[in-house]
Write a structure and sequence with these properties.
The chain is an alpha/beta fold. The chain has a domain of 219 residues: Rossmann fold. The chain is built from 20 helices and 16 strands. Strands 4-5-15-10-11-14 form a 6-stranded mixed sheet, sandwiched between helices. Strands 9-6-7-8-16 form a 5-stranded parallel sheet, sandwiched between helices. β7, α7 and β8 form a beta-alpha-beta unit. α4 crosses α5 and α10 crosses α11. The longest helix is centred in the first third of the chain and has 19 residues. The structure holds pyridoxal-5'-phosphate. The site of pyridoxal-5'-phosphate has 17 residues, from α11.
Length: 464
């Protein structure tokens, strides 16, 4: 499988090069040159596969420059630290199915991708006798999951920017208590979007990027999307084994990475297997406006109880745009240029097509609270606020004849304050989270200025 850029400006590269590149050198995002699909016979054989086996099957459709043994080893090690033997189990509650994605080391769904990505990086760097400095911006969950994905690994240093004072105390501790010498936490005086913009700018400085062998872990890395395709297929196959031909998924969405993996899964599986993808947003509704009106436009960030979805630029949107533009890189490039200049892309002429792929609703804070309360009261099940956004949207679009699978993206204890506000009860802290407050922590506070960040990286980077 070879990979191309959404902006059409690079020669196709293999999987390993695509992963090492992160962002394509023409500023676009990497995608497979052709999309694999599987027939009914093949997926029937997947029905009772354990998660790890299914992961190897799916990954091998997208990777042809690693051996099967290497893939098996990567997958085995990546999911060994999950606390549930099914890795991402499906449960039933309140008329919907819940796909629990939070059983990894940092209690949020990003572990599913980043445990794998950390191991892929380590393997590729070893093969190439190279080293790498990872740079990323986080609104909370990505950073801790990335740090836990690469902590202590040889040949990798990691620099993670988070918005100072704008992430939950637990999220902060999950990052800053990792004191391995290869981990550098940077709190910037600014917003998450500032952090993301700084990272983009540094990656676009090709000289700097090359000098310091910068790599990305943000959801722009193709390997993350790829890893996330697996649990859509896994959840679908669980219900398929019980006689369901068609399911809907509701996805609490921020940067469009998770739901884009769902879009890939939908194209991978036989037609109709995944019927609808529900794009659930909180009050930061730029993607909801895009689905419903065809206008993709920047807004201002509003703080909500689901901070990992508090964004106003969705970094993976460009991947979907590529398909919406019939794989025309030049058109995507023009769109993105227009977005940079005007903060808006008018895609209303393509609205019908978008509506065939997604439906969307924006969920208010009051609805989040009510949903958490109802599930707790009636089902004795605690939803974290991100999950509640997706569940609420799932209930809005639920069809009586089709299972609605809602993605549970974080453990409720990670966002205990919101859960307390809704239910009057504090979720029980899992031991791994409870002990964090006693640990030593390390973090640097810096201005939200690309030059300041570059200077810091230059002083602490691994050289090769
Ligand atoms: C990152 C995150 C999301 C949003 O996922 P995207 O891939 O950015 O759309 C939702 N919930 C939680 C808990 C997250 O950490």
């Amino acid at each position: 499988m070879r990979y191309i850029s959404t902006r059409g400006g690079i020669d196709p590269v293999g999987f390993s090069d695509a992963v090492m590149m992160g962002l394509a050198t023409d500023g676009g995002l990497l995608l497979p040159e052709t999309l694999p699909s599987v027939d009914q016979h093949t997926v029937s054989g997947w029905s009772n596969l354990p998660y790890q086996y299914l992961a190897v099957e799916i990954l091998s459709l997208f990777i042809d420059d690693l051996s099967r043994t290497e893939l098996e080893d990567l997958v085995e090690r990546s999911y060994a630290r999950f606390r549930h033997h099914q890795v991402t189990p499906v449960t039933r509650c309140g008329g919907v199915y819940i796909l629990e994605l939070f059983h990894g080391p940092t209690f949020a769904f990003k572990d599913v991708a980043l445990q794998l990505l950390g191991n892929i990086f380590e393997l590729l760097l070893k093969k190439r006798s190279a080293s790498m400095n990872i740079l990323g911006a986080t609104s909370g969950d990505t950073g801790s999951a990335a740090i836990h994905g690469v902590r202590g690994k040889d040949g990798i240093n990691i620099f993670i920017l988070h918005p100072d004072g704008r992430i939950s105390p637990i999220q902060k501790l999950q990052m800053t208590t990792v004191t391995d010498p290869n981990v550098f936490n940077i709190a910037i005086r600014g917003t998450f979007d500032d952090g993301q913009a700084i990272v983009k700018e540094i990656f676009n400085d090709l000289e700097f990027k090359e000098k310091y062998h910068l790599g990305a872990v943000n959801s722009i890395n193709w390997a993350r999307v790829m890893a996330q395709i697996v649990y859509y297929v896994f959840a679908w196959s669980k219900l398929h084994a019980h006689g369901c031909d068609s399911v809907d998924f509701s996805v609490p969405t921020g940067n469009f990475g998770d739901i884009f993996a769902g879009y890939m899964a939908r194209r991978l599986l036989p037609p109709g297997a995944i019927n609808r993808l529900i794009l659930a947003t909180n009050a930061n509704d730029l993607l909801c406006r895009f689905v419903n009106q065809g206008i993709y436009s920047r807004g201002t960030v509003q703080a909500t109880s689901s901070p990992s979805m508090d964004i106003q630029v969705a970094s993976n949107f460009e991947r979907y745009l590529y398909y919406l533009r019939d794989e025309n890189g030049a058109a995507v490039k023009a769109d993105m240029q227009q977005f940079d200049n005007t903060g808006q892309i008018d895609l209303s002429a393509l609205r019908q097509r978008v509506r065939e792929d997604f439906v969307s609703v924006s969920v208010s804070e009051a609805e989040v609270m009510e949903t958490i309360r109802t599930f707790h009261r009636d089902g004795d099940y605690l939803l974290d606020p991100h999950t509640a956004v997706g569940v609420r949207a799932g209930l809005t679009f639920r069809h009586e004849k089709r299972p609605m699978i809602c993605l549970a993206t974080a453990h409720p204890a990670k966002f205990g304050e919101a859960v307390h506000e809704a239910t009057g009860q504090d979720p029980e802290l899992p031991p791994a989270l409870a002990e964090l407050t006693d640990r030593e922590s390390r973090c640097e506070v810096l201005d939200a200025d690309p030059e300041v960040i570059k200077t810091y990286i230059a002083a602490h980077a691994l050289e090769s």
